[in-house]
Design a protein that fits this description.
The protein is an alpha+beta fold and 219 residues long. The chain has two domains: 77 residues, Glutaredoxin; 114 residues, Glutathione S-transferase Yfyf (Class Pi), Chain A, domain 2, CATH 1.20.1050. The chain contains ten helices and four strands, in the order E-H-E-H-E-E-H-H-H-H-H-H-H-H. A hairpin with a 5-residue loop joins strand 3 and strand 4. The longest helix has 22 residues. The chain starts with a strand and ends with a helix.
Length: 219
């Protein structure tokens, strides 16, 4: 059995969990927090990033997209990548834009948006400028017809569902404007549509339950 290690606070953890559920692969979950110094965690994820997976024989994989590609190869059906090599590459292209050019840029805002930290005015303006440029580029690729890559649900939807809402909420909280909505990307309607899927509903319910447990433990 696959063990998914990490925590549901992480959008990348939820992306991998969503792929596992969509594929119907049996798995269990193990709570691992970020920045762990545990030697076993560092052996599996050298930068102590989450998520990572552990197989029944003890082998491990880290980096969410690497894990998702492994799961696609392990369980080809239901397919989350097109069989045509070019179309599959176009799905990967969208994932790269969502995670590298949108989410990673917006991540500088997360400390202030979600965790009580702060982001300097200069950094805020730099993030705004870069995200504004990158969002316009993303719009040239994303189809939302109705799925992000076109007619079929793909791995790009797993990535987009997990990350677009975080980008939108962070920019709204820190910059005073949801840069995705301002650019005409209606991520709220899109994520509601994706949330009709049972696998997504499971991820959302588990995330809510984990948040409630954490809040109760604090106080």
């Amino acid at each position: 059995m696959i063990t998914l290690c990490g925590m549901s606070l992480s959008n990348y953890y939820n992306k991998v969990k969503l792929v596992l559920l969509e594929k119907g692969l049996p798995f269990q979950e193990e709570l691992v927090k970020t920045f762990s110094n545990d030697p076993e965690v560092l052996a599996a994820s050298p930068l102590a990033k989450i998520p990572f997976i552990r197989l029944a024989d003890g082998r491990t994989l880290c980096e969410s997209e690497v894990i998702c590609e492994y799961l696609e190869a392990l369980q080809p059906t239901p397919a989350l990548l097109p069989t045509d090599p070019f179309e599959a590459a176009k799905v990967r292209e969208l994932i790269t834009f969502v995670e590298l050019h949108l989410e990673l840029v917006a991540r500088e805002l997360y400390g202030q948006a979600f965790f009580g930290g702060s982001c300097s005015e200069s950094n805020q303006q730099r993030v705004r400028k870069q995200l504004t440029k990158n969002i316009e580029a993303f719009k040239r690729l994303a189809k939302f017809s109705p799925y992000i890559a076109g007619d079929h649900y793909t791995m790009a939807d797993c990535a987009a569902w997990a990350s677009l809402s975080v980008v939108g909420m962070a920019t709204k909280a820190v910059l005073g404007e949801d840069l995705l909505l301002a650019a005409g990307i209606d991520w709220k309607t899109y994520t509601r549509f994706i949330a009709e899927r049972p696998a997504v509903q499971r991820v959302v319910a588990d995330r809510k339950a984990d948040a409630e447990k954490a809040a109760a433990a604090k106080g």
